[in-house]
Amino acid sequence: MTPSHRTARSFLPRGLLSLALMLVLSGCSPGPVEWNGKDISELMPELAYQLVDEQGNPATAEDYAGQVRLLFFGFTHCPDICPATLAHLRNALREIPEQQRDDVTVLFVSVDPKRDDPEVLAEYTEYFGPNFVGMTGTEPELRKLSQRYRTTFGYGEPDAEGHYDVSHSSAIYAFDREGNARLLLRSELTPEQIAEDLTHLLNEDR
């Protein structure tokens, strides 16, 4: 047997052992999370705002620090998208273990400050449950916040009675406990899929 053959033969068991060890370790290590929503990590800025909440108090992202937060823009006179989306999120929260549910807050930001004062917002969010908090601000403040998350809104022409529609995005932004933008949740996701994503965020190491 030549020296080269002896070398190849002597290293063969060690190579197989290393390969087997790598396979075992890879099987035991948790893989990356397969999100149902769109991963927007490092694509959007962290959660930050200066608004007024449904109690009429100044509101900032520090108010719910340490919680997973969902940000959704809308208005209380919305005939379809807003109530359907908030009801959808309410159903998703019901899928989360009860002991973790209080660690999720839905921030409903009204882009219709002329009609949605704190009292109106409080009455509206009460219907969906204690995890929902309404807030609003001046139009410039709302424009600044919507642009921060690359969305927009607009107002339709008032009718004879002064009623008008408001156009806005249906996107839901999910932020982790540290306030980092993590996911873009769309309406086609089921409550179970949303709950699965939120549970992953809740269970991440802090």
From TrEMBL:
- Family as reported in the entry's similarity comment: Belongs to the SCO1/2 family.
Q: List the disulfide bonds.
A: 78-82
Q: Which Pfam families match?
A: SCO1-SenC
Stretch forming the signal peptide: 1-30
Query: InterPro entries in the record, alphabetically?
Result: SCO1/SenC (IPR003782), Thioredoxin-like_sf (IPR036249), Thioredoxin_domain (IPR013766)
List, for all copies, the residue spans of the domain called Thioredoxin. 38-203
Q: What is this protein called?
A: SCO family protein
Question: Any idea which positions bind Cu cation?
Answer: 78, 82, 168
State one molecular function term (GO): metal ion binding
Alphabetically sorted, this entry's keywords are: Copper, Disulfide bond, Metal-binding, Signal
Q: Which CDD domains match?
A: SCO
So which domain of life are we looking at?
Answer: Bacteria
